[in-house]
């Protein structure tokens, strides 16, 4: 079995929820009459015979907007799936009837995904919730929907149950059967983006770093598995090439057994389709009328497919719908007591367990990573009729590490299943992880995780502290040492919560003088374990966390700040996390800066203004302007804000209820908002697809928005404002810089007025034959300038963007190719420009 070093050791199974599953998978309409029919499977036709109905899956549907006459067709699709699947847990579906995009018959997907659940055949792999609940044998998301599905109200549907749709109509039973298949697990959760041409397209098979179970079986023509393959890292250009190769397959011995050894071909067209590619069978290989055509990407008119087909059913069996679940709670923890150890597992099979195949494999080594003994194999036994198996590991003595795993096999497939489930490790093989515990004196300190608050409002006191503490032996205490304004207060312990991992407590005023606005709370946490050595962990490891106590200032009609007067004696008017007033290299003066680069992984950075603003009655005066540099990950082309494909973004938000609810002053935006930013971001993409481009003063561009535009804020409202940067778990960039903030500052003169003060805008010679010079002088460096020339009809005949910040402008233009006549030359920024006429003669 190899050495201890070569094996993956795990101390306990970890059930993990991913709250952002992939987008629903789409079924497209084919504008052609096919006149084909695939009959329901024998299990449906003979569903009153064979295995007891109580063992079969039960699917409950909540209909939203569904017409009554369409529900019978939906129910037939439900009945077909119920006849084919076995699950002890109810599968809940939310079905909506609504207008969808053109050509889309339906779309569906899992509402949640889980990994490392008890009984899973594979470790560190995402399972969609309906399959995860079947494998775990328990509800994981309560009574919430497991599958979310939507069907178009725009099509001429055939609602009959006989599988005989006439010409021009789409069979609803077939489309529902198809979409439920996606919700049950027929989905790769692949993604594909088109970054700049310098790097080419990037594809991924992972969600938060791990593939879905369907994806673990995808392989290319030569038979190379894509997931977990170092040749096709996720994300990568190499993986994108595979996604568009038209040469991908679902590699499965169970599938091959029903196809005469032919692998199931997946839909991987040369142009990637985000709602369809990889998550379907190939349309050409399984044409209309083929028994396996249900899970292809399109459905034609007069085409009825009322069976998943043998390929899809075996794919489902491969992923775990046919499973031997070894549900083991690894309750054996590190201990300082040498004794015998009983291992228990509940083994439940959809087939028949091979007699004597439930076994415990364990080894004992000297407690280090040095090679240890080979495995000892013990049979695990159960009382007649029981699924609870046990075996006993004899006393290993002190100073020993014990590692183990459990295996079982079923008669029907002759497959061996293990707990923990196997790990994807190399291109060709999987590895067997192991549970482990140590017997002997403990020297391992606790794990202590805590996220400090960057500030607290005085009105929100006391300061509540929450930490997660865990240890191989157990936690004895989590203490808080703290001071207020440098004066120590009595140490106290956080209280253990019901989950036995979370600890919570409050820093209150009762331990000394009242804590008020302007105070500074400093603290650290100390976790001690329950071992004889009383090992401890301090968080932070050095210094302390500092939390200023702040209060909202009196509301004002306006606010202006160029941030250059900020000193230690005059702190900023902002509080938050991930932002500061700084002057990085390449910048002329102080400004608001996010962390550079900003952290990703669903991270939100916030900087809140402590001065609320009273919204002007005159919409023309309720403006908010600032200069900014935005180098954050651009979303997919055309992705609307705030869709999942928008990726990272920056946004200005306001609150009228004391910060409980925040609404956008304007929609969020990213580096795509300005050509200069996008070019800079894309100029330096590394292998991890992060941008290493650095912001500079020359990239500052003006931003203007109005507090009244989005309709959330009305005249007289008192609004708190904040800047927010959101980062998803994928790529990241340099970040955000903000300067010269002006809110409802109606003393600001227009750029046209400023030009008059400094000598105005000149165009010479005038008249000319089309070759002339535009000259201007600005009172301060001005970024984002553009020269626009329009004809007498207002049509733009020339637009020229000026890079960097300008103080003096002298730009030669050649418009000699234009017809003779009067033209208007404007210089300025969007919405604020000075204009001069120029006459072109011939």
Give me a quick take on this structure.
The protein has 842 residues and is mostly beta strands. Helix content is 9%, strand content 37%. Strand 4 (59-64), helix 2 (71-84) and strand 5 (91-98) form a beta-alpha-beta unit.
Task: Provide structural commentary.
The protein is mostly beta strands. The strands form 15 sheets. Strands 1, 22, 23, 25, 26 and 29 form a six-stranded mixed beta sheet that branches. Strand 12 (191-193) and strand 13 (202-204) form a beta hairpin. Residues 1-14 have low confidence and may be disordered.
User: Compute the gyration radius: what is it?
Assistant: 33 Å
Low-confidence stretches: 1-14
Which word captures the global form? globular
Count of DSSP-assigned helices: 9
The strand count comes to 58
Helix-strand blueprint:
Layout: E1 9-10, E2 16-18, E3 25-38, H1 42-45, E4 59-64, H2 71-84, E5 91-98, E6 104-110, E7 113-115, E8 127-128, H3 129-136, E9 147-152, E10 157-158, E11 170-171, H4 172-184, E12 191-193, E13 202-204, E14 206-207, E15 210-211, E16 218-220, H5 237-243, E17 248-250, H6 253-256, E18 264-265, E19 298-305, H7 309-321, E20 324-327, E21 341-349, E22 359-365, E23 376-379, E24 388-393, E25 400-409, E26 416-419, E27 423-424, E28 430-431, E29 434-439, E30 447-450, E31 456-457, E32 463-470, E33 475-484, E34 487-493, E35 495-496, E36 502-507, E37 520-529, E38 536-539, E39 545-550, E40 559-561, E41 574-577, E42 579-582, E43 591-594, E44 603-609, E45 613-614, E46 623-631, E47 649-655, E48 663-664, H8 675-682, E49 701-706, E50 718-727, E51 735-743, H9 751-757, E52 761-764, E53 771-782, E54 786-790, E55 796-801, E56 806-814, E57 821-829, E58 832-840
Parallel strand pairs: 1-29, 3-19, 4-5, 5-9, 10-11, 31-39
Antiparallel strand pairs: 2-7, 3-6, 6-9, 7-8, 12-13, 14-15, 16-17, 17-18, 20-21, 21-24, 22-23, 22-25, 25-26, 25-29, 27-28, 30-32, 32-36, 33-34, 33-37, 35-36, 37-38, 37-39, 40-51, 41-44, 42-43, 43-51, 44-50, 45-50, 46-49, 46-51, 47-48, 47-50, 52-53, 53-56, 54-55, 54-57, 57-58
């Amino acid at each position: 079995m190899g050495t201890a070093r070569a094996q993956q050791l795990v101390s306990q199974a970890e059930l993990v929820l991913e709250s952002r599953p992939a987008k629903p998978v789409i079924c497209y309409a084919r504008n052609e009459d096919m006149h084909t029919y695939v009959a329901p499977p024998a299990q449906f036709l003979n569903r009153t015979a064979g295995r007891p109905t109580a063992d079969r899956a039960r699917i409950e549907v909540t209909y939203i907007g569904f017409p009554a006459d369409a529900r019978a067709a939906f129910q037939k699709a439900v009945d077909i799936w119920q006849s084919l699947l076995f699950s002890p847990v109810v599968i809940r579906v939310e079905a909506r009837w609504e207008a969808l995009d053109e050509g889309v018959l339906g779309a569906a997907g899992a509402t949640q995904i889980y990994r490392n659940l008890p009984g899973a055949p594979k470790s560190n792999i995402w399972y969609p919730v309906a399959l995860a609940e079947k494998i775990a044998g328990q509800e994981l998301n309560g009574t919430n929907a497991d599958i979310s599905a939507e069907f178009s109200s725009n099509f001429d549907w055939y609602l009959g149950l006989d599988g005989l749709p006439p010409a021009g109509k789409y069979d609803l039973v077939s489309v529902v059967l198809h979409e439920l298949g996606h919700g049950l697990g027929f989905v790769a959760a692949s993604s594909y983006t088109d970054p700049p041409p310098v790097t080419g397209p990037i594809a991924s098979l992972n969600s938060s770093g791990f593939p879905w179970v369907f994806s673990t079986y995808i392989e290319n023509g030569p038979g190379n598995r894509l997931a977990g393959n170092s040749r096709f890292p996720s994300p990568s250009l190499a993986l994108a090439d595979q996604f568009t190769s038209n040469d991908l397959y679902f590699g499965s011995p169970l599938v091959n057994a029903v196809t005469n050894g032919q692998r199931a071909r997946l839909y991987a067209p040369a142009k990637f389709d985000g709602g369809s590619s990889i998550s379907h069978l190939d349309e050409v290989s399984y044409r209309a009328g083929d028994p396996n055509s249900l899970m292809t990407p399109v459905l034609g008119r007069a085409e009825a497919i009322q069976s998943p087909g043998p390929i899809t059913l075996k794919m489902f069996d491969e992923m775990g719908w046919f499973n031997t679940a070894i549900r083991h709670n690894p309750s054996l923890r590190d201990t300082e007591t040498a004794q015998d150890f009983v291992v228990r597992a509940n083994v439940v099979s959809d087939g028949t367990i091979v007699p004597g195949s439930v076994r415990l494999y364990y080894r004992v080594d000297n407690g280090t990573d040095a090679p240890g003994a080979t495995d000892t194999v013990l049979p695990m036994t159960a009382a007649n009729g029981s699924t609870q198996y046990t075996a006993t590991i004899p006393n290993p003595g002190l100073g020993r590490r014990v590692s183990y795993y459990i295996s079982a096999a079923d008669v029907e497939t002759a497959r061996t299943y293990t707990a923990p489930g196997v790990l994807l490790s190399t291109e060709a093989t999987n590895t067997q992880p192991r549970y482990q515990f140590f017997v002997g004196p403990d020297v391992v300190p606790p794990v202590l995780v805590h996220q400090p608050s960057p500030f607290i409002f005085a009105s929100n006191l006391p300061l509540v502290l929450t930490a997660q503490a865990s240890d191989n032996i157990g936690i004895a205490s989590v203490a808080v040492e703290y001071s207020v304004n440098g004066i120590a207060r009595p140490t106290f312990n956080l209280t253990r919560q019901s989950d036995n991992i979370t600890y919570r407590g409050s820093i209150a005023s009762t331990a000394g003088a009242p804590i008020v606005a302007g105070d500074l709370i400093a603290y650290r946490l100390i976790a001690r374990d329950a071992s004889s050595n009383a090992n401890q962990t301090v968080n932070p490891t050095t210094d302390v966390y500092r939390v200023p106590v702040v209060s909202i200032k009196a509301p004002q009609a306006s606010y202006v700040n160029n941030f250059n007067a900020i000193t230690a004696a005059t702190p900023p008017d902002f509080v938050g996390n991930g932002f500061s007033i700084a002057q990085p290299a390449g910048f002329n003066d102080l400004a608001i800066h996010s962390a550079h680069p900003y952290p990703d992984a669903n991270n939100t950075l916030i900087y809140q203004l402590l001065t609320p603003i009273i919204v002007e009655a005159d919409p023309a005066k309720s403006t908010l302007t600032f200069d900014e540099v935005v180098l954050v990950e651009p979303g997919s082309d055309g992705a609307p804000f705030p869709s999942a494909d928008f990726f990272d973004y920056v946004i200005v938000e306001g609150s009228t209820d004391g910060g409980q609810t925040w609404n956008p002053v304007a929609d969020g935006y990213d580096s795509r908002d300005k050509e200069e930013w996008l070019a800079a971001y894309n100029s330096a993409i590394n292998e991890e697809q992060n941008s290493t481009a650095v912001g500079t003063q020359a990239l500052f561009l003006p931003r203007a928005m109005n507090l009244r535009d989005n309709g959330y804020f009305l005249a007289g409202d008192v609004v708190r404002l904040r800047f927010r940067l959101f980062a998803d778990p994928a790529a990241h960039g340099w970040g955000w810089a903000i300067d010269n903030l002006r809110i409802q500052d109606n003393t600001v003169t227009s750029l046209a007025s400023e030009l008059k003060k400094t000598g105005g805008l000149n165009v010479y010679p005038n008249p000319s034959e089309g070759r002339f010079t535009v000259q201007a002088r600005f009172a301060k460096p001005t970024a984002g300038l553009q020269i626009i020339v329009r004809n007498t009809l207002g049509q733009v005949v020339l637009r020229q963007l000026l890079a960097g910040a300008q103080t003096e402008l002298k730009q030669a233009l050649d418009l000699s190719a234009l017809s003779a006549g009067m033209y208007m030359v404007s210089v300025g920024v969007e919405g604020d420009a000075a204009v001069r006429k120029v006459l072109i003669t011939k």
